[in-house]
Design a protein that fits this description.
- The structure holds 2 protein chains of 2 kinds.
- Chain A is an all-beta fold.
- Helices cover 0% and strands 50% of the residues of chain A.
- The N and C termini of chain A lie far apart (37 Å).
- Chain B is 0% helix and 54% strand.
- Chain B contains no helices and 11 strands.
- Chain B has strands spanning 4-5, 10-14, 19-25, 32-38, 45-51, 56-59, 62-67, 72-77, 86-93, 101-102, 106-111.
- In chain B, strands 2, 4, 5, 9, 10 and 11 form a 6-stranded mixed β-sheet that branches. A 5-stranded antiparallel β-sheet of chain B has the order 1-3-8-7-6, with no helix packed on it.
- Classes of the chains: A mainly beta, B mainly beta.
- The A-B interface holds A 4, 6, 31, 33, 35, 41-45, 48, 55-56, 58, 91, 93, 98, 100-101, 103-109, 111 and B 31-32, 34, 36, 41-46, 49, 51, 89, 91, 93, 95, 97-105.
Chain lengths: 115, 112
């Protein structure tokens, strides 16, 4: 069964450093998403991406964040200058269409720890 | 801004019995609802969904009920199995947006 994959599974970085989180969405999916879950809190939407453009973003997704689809398979989230409060689990998701009843399928997540 | 609430942080059920997980929402514009299951160190796994035009959807042991007037949905698992032990999240969206709004989750423990 096709699935979303993410690398790395864990990332430790120093405050102020840049990190890139990678995702390979399900191959025939066209819509891509990033969510995060701070420890003990709920899963929060960050951004959605379609046709090489951001289609929607939350207030969390400020100028330090960016997304890219550098090739036909990868989808990346870059955090330019990490802060302590960026420590969280980051989930990538993908869906086939943006229909109302379209389900987003999630990857296993990258646990980011900013020291 | 808690548009989706799961008021029970945890639930314990005996194996073979019914598990009922509840979710309330405040935004009447939500028109699609989902339940995800999450094991530790894994991503949310899709379980079942329901459109706002329906009041029930069933898939094997899982049934989701939607009460629009009460802005309430529930997930029933019958019979519960030890492998169902996980954190269950409800999520909701409106047709005008891509984003899912998640609840805080309910940790289900099914006792053998």
């Amino acid at each position: 069964e096709p699935e979303v994959t993410q690398t790395p599974s864990h990332q430790v970085t120093q405050m102020g450093q840049e990190v890139i989180l990678r995702c390979v969405p399900i191959s025939n999916h066209l819509y891509f998403y990033w969510y995060r879950q701070i420890l003990g809190q709920k899963v929060e939407f960050l951004v959605s991406f379609y046709n090489n453009e951001i289609s929607e973003k939350s207030e969390i997704f400020d100028d330090q964040f960016s997304v890219e689809r550098p090739d036909g398979s990868n989808f990346t989230l870059k955090i330019r200058s990490t802060k302590l409060e960026d420590s969280a689990m980051y989930f990538c998701a993908s869906s086939d269409t943006r229909a109302v009843q379209e389900t987003q399928y999630f990857g296993p997540g990258t646990r980011l720890l900013v020291l | 801004d808690q548009q989706v609430k799961q008021n029970s942080p945890s639930l314990s059920v005996q194996e073979g019995r019914i598990s009922i997980l509840n979710c309330d929402y405040t935004n009447s514009m939500f028109d699609y609802f989902l339940w995800y299951k999450k094991y530790p160190a894994e991503g949310p796994t899709f379980l079942i969904s329901i459109s706002s035009i329906k009041d029930k959807n069933e898939d094997g042991r899982f049934t989701v009920f939607l009460n629009k007037s009460a802005k309430h949905l529930s997930l029933h698992i019958v019979p519960s199995q030890p492998g169902d032990s996980a954190v269950y999240f409800c999520a909701a969206k409106t047709s005008g947006t891509y984003k899912y709004i998640f609840g805080t989750g309910t940790r289900l423990k099914v006792l053998a």
